[in-house]
Design a protein that fits this description.
Blueprint: H1 5-27, E1 37-38, E2 58-60, H2 62-73, E3 85-86, H3 92-95, H4 382-386
Length: about 400
C-alpha cells in the first residue's frame, strides 16, 4: 500500500496547483470597485439572517464611492451607478452634488445627505431613504417609486413630475416642496408635513394622508380620488377643481379652504371642520357631512343632491342657488343660513333649527319641515308654504 502513496500525493499536488493558479487568474478579473464592497460572509448566511434585496452588493466604502464618481467625472462611465450598495450615512452634499440621472436603485441610503444636490432623473426605486436629508434637492423627474422615505427631510425640494408611486413618506417633512404633476398614487403619507407645498395636478389616487398637515398647500386640480385624509389638516389649503370623489375626510380640518368646483361626490366629510370654506359650484352629491361644521361656508351653486347633513352646523352658511334635492338635513343648525333660490325638492329638515334662515325664492316642493322655530316674515311667505306640496309643515306652538 505504501508504494502507491507517492503517486497519489504527486497527483494531488498537481491538481491543487492548477486550481490555485486558476483562482488567482479569475480574481484578477474582478472589478476593482467591487473589491471595495464588503459583502456578508458565508458563515453569516444562516436561516435566521434577513433576506437581502436582489442585486445587493454590500457596503461600499467612501473610497469606492469616490472611485465611481471619479470614473464618471473622467467620462470613463456614462452614468453614476450605485445600485444595490449600502451607502448609509454618506454625505453626497460634500462629495459631489451633480448626481443627475444617477442610479440608486435598491440602495440603502439611511441617514444619507443629499442637501442641495441635483438629482434630476435619478433612480431611487425601492431605495431605503429613512431619515435621509433631501432638503432643497432637485428631484424633478426622479423615480422614487416604492422608496422608503419615512422621516426623511425634503423641505424645499423640487419634485416636479417625480414618480412616488407606492412610496412611503410617513412622517416625512415636505414643507415648501414643489410636487407639481407628480405621481403619488397609493403613496403612504400618513402624518407627513406638507405645509405650503405645491401639489398642483398631483396624482394622489388612493394615497394615505391620515393625520397629514397640508396647511396652506396648493392642491388645485389634484387627483385625490379615494384618498384617505382622515384627521388631516387642510386649513387654508387650495383645492379648486380637485378630484376628491369617495375620499375619506372624516374629522379633517378644511377651515377656510378653497374648494371651488371641486368634486367631493360620495366623499366622507363627517365631523369635518369646514368653517368659512369656499365651496362655490362644488360637487357634494351623496356626500356624508353628518356632524360637520360648515358655519359661514360659501356653497353657492353647489350640488348637494342626496347629501347627508344630519346634525351639521350650517349657521350663516350660504346655499344660494345650490341644489339640495333629497338632502338629509335632520337636526341640522341653519341659523341665519341663506338658501335664496336654492332647490330643496324632497329635502328633509326634520328637527332642524331654521331660525332667521332665508328661503327667498327657494323650491321647497315635497320638502319636510317639522320645525318649531319662528321664521322672519320677510324670509318666509305664503307662496313658499304652498310650495311644500306633500311635505310636512308643523308650526304648532307659534305665538
Amino acid at each position: 500500500m505504501s508504494s502507491t502513496l507517492p503517486a497519489y500525493s504527486a497527483t494531488s499536488r498537481a491538481v491543487t496547483g492548477f486550481q490555485g493558479a486558476t483562482q488567482t487568474f479569475l480574481q484578477n478579473l474582478v472589478d476593482p470597485i467591487q473589491q471595495l464592497a464588503t459583502t456578508p460572509s458565508a458563515s453569516a448566511a444562516t436561516t435566521s439572517a434577513p433576506v437581502l434585496a436582489p442585486g445587493y452588493k454590500g457596503r461600499l466604502s467612501i473610497e469606492g464611492v469616490e472611485a465611481i464618481i471619479d470614473a464618471y467625472k473622467t467620462q470613463k462611465t456614462t452614468q453614476i451607478d450605485f445600485s444595490g450598495y449600502d451607502l448609509s450615512g454618506i454625505n453626497f452634499s460634500e462629495l459631489f452634488r451633480d448626481l443627475s440621472g444617477a442610479n440608486f436603485q435598491n440602495c440603502n441610503l439611511k441617514n444619507a445627505n443629499f442637501k442641495y444636490c441635483n438629482l434630476t432623473g435619478a433612480n431611487f426605486n425601492r431605495a431605503n431613504l429613512l431619515h435621509a436629508n433631501l432638503s432643497h434637492a432637485n428631484l424633478s423627474g426622479a423615480d422614487l417609486s416604492e422608496a422608503a422615505l419615512r422621516l426623511a427631510n425634503l423641505r424645499g425640494a423640487v419634485l416636479i413630475k417625480a414618480n412616488l408611486n407606492l412610496a412611503n413618506l410617513s412622517c416625512a417633512i415636505l414643507n415648501d416642496t414643489d410636487v407639481e404633476d407628480s405621481n403619488l398614487m397609493r403613496a403612504n403619507c400618513k402624518g407627513a408635513y406638507w405645509l405650503r407645498a405645491n401639489l398642483t395636478r398631483a396624482i394622489l389616487r388612493k394615497a394615505t394622508l391620515s393625520g397629514a398637515d397640508l396647511t396652506g398647500a396648493n392642491l388645485s386640480g389634484a387627483d385625490l380620488t379615494g384618498a384617505i385624509l382622515e384627521s388631516a389638516i387642510l386649513s387654508n389649503a387650495t383645492l379648486s377643481r380637485a378630484l376628491l370623489s369617495e375620499a375619506i375626510l372624516k374629522e379633517a380640518d378644511l377651515s377656510a379652504a378653497i374648494l371651488s368646483s371641486a368634486d367631493l361626490s360620495k366623499a366622507d366629510l363627517s365631523y369635518a371642520n369646514l368653517r368659512k370654506a369656499y365651496l362655490m359650484a362644488a360637487n357634494l352629491e351623496a356626500a356624508a357631512l353628518s356632524g360637520s361644521d360648515l358655519s359661514r361656508a360659501c356653497l353657492t351653486l353647489a350640488n348637494l343632491r342626496h347629501a347627508v347633513l344630519i346634525g351639521a352646523k350650517l349657521t350663516e352658511a350660504n346655499f344660494s342657488g345650490a341644489d339640495l334635492s333629497e338632502a338629509d338635513l335632520r337636526e341640522a343648525i341653519l341659523i341665519n343660513a341663506v338658501l335664496i333660490g336654492a332647490k330643496l325638492t324632497g329635502a328633509d329638515f326634520s328637527g332642524a333649527d331654521l331660525t332667521e334662515a332665508d328661503f327667498s325664492g327657494a323650491d321647497l316642493s315635497r320638502a319636510t319641515l317639522d320645525f318649531k322655530w319662528p321664521l322672519i316674515d320677510s324670509m318666509w311667505d305664503d307662496s313658499m308654504v304652498s310650495n311644500l306640496g306633500v311635505g310636512k309643515f308643523d308650526n304648532s306652538g307659534f305665538d
